[in-house]
């Protein structure tokens, strides 16, 4: 185990070890992807919050398990206003599968993200999707390909790579490879703790032309407003949607009156500032987070 892995939570180390051993596809894929940035823009133009709703049967950070048909869940999410879907394909720890993703993508007309721990180029070819998650923290390490290698290999196949970061250093790596879609994970994979301030600290350093997502820890209408006010173009939400009535939860979180603020530090929209919904007023810290 290298020094970087030693700082990971045991559950995450187990997931990463399993990911290194997972095989890839039998042939190189050629994906005709549905545009995620276009879908985000269309949702925002319609006056709704762009949300990537996550079909997540279970995870190491949640209790219980949803055994509903993934296609039924996905359809309810889209009916509730989801801009895109995230489908877990990691089987051992999240109960996902490539077959679930294939079925969901065949059933809906919105972009679909493959949510998994992809660490080698061959693993890109396991299943077609519109977006593909690349977690910066787990790449450029022993036993994994580099972020640059996987990013270019994904683009060559037609995927839209979503590069996930948690620190300023990881953000700079994502920008260095030319990432056009970046997600800031509010969850520290070392401690599995969530801090929405992570997004607020990193967002001002992301160029406006990048499509920026806030991930993890978004559980309420107030959290949606907070992340949008900090500059999130879209939000990835799993547990808060999966816990209960999926369609109603999706509709509640996508119809929040909360416009995205400028990442240059400008104020949020008047609608956000005058809302009667309680919001977190933690001041933005634009210092580097390592």
Task: Provide a descriptive summary of the structure in words.
- Strand 7 and strand 8 form a beta hairpin.
- The chain has helices at 3-6, 10-21, 36-45, 70-79, 91-94, 98-107, 147-157, 168-176, 197-202, 221-229, 239-242, 246-254, 270-273, and strands at 51-55, 84-88, 112-115, 131-135, 160-165, 181-185, 187-188, 193-194, 211-215, 234-237.
- The protein is built from 13 helices and 10 strands.
- Helix 4 (70-79) packs across helix 6 (98-107) and helix 4 packs parallel to helix 12.
- It has an 8-stranded parallel beta barrel with strand order 1-2-3-4-5-6-9-10, surrounded by 7 helices.
- It has a single domain, classed as Alpha-Beta Barrel (TIM Barrel), CATH 3.20.20.
- Residues 268-290 have low confidence and may be disordered.
- The chain has 290 residues and is an alpha/beta fold.
- The longest helix has 12 residues, at 10-21.
The percent range for helix content is: 25-40%
Largest beta sheet: what is the strand line-up? 1-2-3-4-5-6-9-10
Number of domains: 1
Mean pLDDT: 86
Shape: globular
Number of H/I helices: 13
Radius of gyration: 18 Å
Alpha-beta classification:
alpha/beta
CATH homologous superfamily placement: Aldolase class I
**Major beta sheet, specifics?**
8 strands, parallel, barrel
Relative strand content: 5-15%
The ordered H/E elements are HHHEHEHHEEHEHEEEHEHEHHH
From the 3D structure, determine the CATH topology. Answer: TIM Barrel
Model regions low in confidence, pLDDT < 50 over at least 5 residues: 268-290
Number of β-strand runs: 10
Top CATH class: Alpha Beta
C-alpha termini separation: 22 Å
**CATH architecture level-2 label:** Alpha-Beta Barrel
């Amino acid at each position: 185990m290298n020094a970087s892995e030693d700082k990971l939570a045991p559950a995450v180390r187990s997931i990463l070890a399993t990911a290194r051993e997972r095989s890839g596809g039998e042939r190189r894929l050629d994906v005709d992807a549905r545009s995620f940035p276009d879908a985000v823009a269309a949702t925002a133009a319609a006056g709704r919050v762009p949300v990537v709703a996550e079909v997540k049967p279970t995870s190491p950070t949640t209790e219980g398990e949803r055994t509903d048909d993934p296609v039924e869940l996905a359809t309810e999410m889209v009916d509730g206003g989801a801009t895109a879907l995230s489908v877990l394909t990691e089987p051992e720890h999240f109960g996902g599968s490539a077959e679930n993703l294939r079925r969901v993508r065949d059933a809906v007309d919105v972009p679909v993200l493959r949510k998994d721990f992809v660490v080698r180029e061959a693993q890109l070819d396991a299943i077609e999707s519109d977006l593909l998650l690349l977690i910066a923290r787990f790449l450029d390490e022993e036993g994994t390909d580099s972020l640059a290698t996987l990013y270019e290999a994904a683009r060559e196949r037609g995927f839209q790579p979503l590069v996930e970061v948690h620190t300023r250093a990881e953000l700079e790596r994502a920008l260095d490879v030319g990432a056009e879609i970046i997600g800031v994970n509010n969850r520290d994979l070392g401690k599995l703790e969530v801090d929405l301030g992570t997004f607020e600290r990193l967002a001002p350093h992301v160029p406006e032309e990048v499509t920026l997502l806030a991930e993890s820890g978004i559980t309420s209408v107030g959290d949606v407003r907070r992340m949008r006010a900090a500059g999130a173009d879209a939000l990835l939400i799993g547990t808060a949607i999966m816990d209960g009535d999926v369609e109603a939860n999706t509709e509640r979180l996508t119809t929040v009156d909360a416009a995205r603020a400028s990442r240059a530090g400008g104020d949020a929209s008047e609608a956000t500032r005058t809302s009667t919904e309680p919001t977190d007023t933690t001041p933005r810290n634009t210092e580097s987070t390592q």
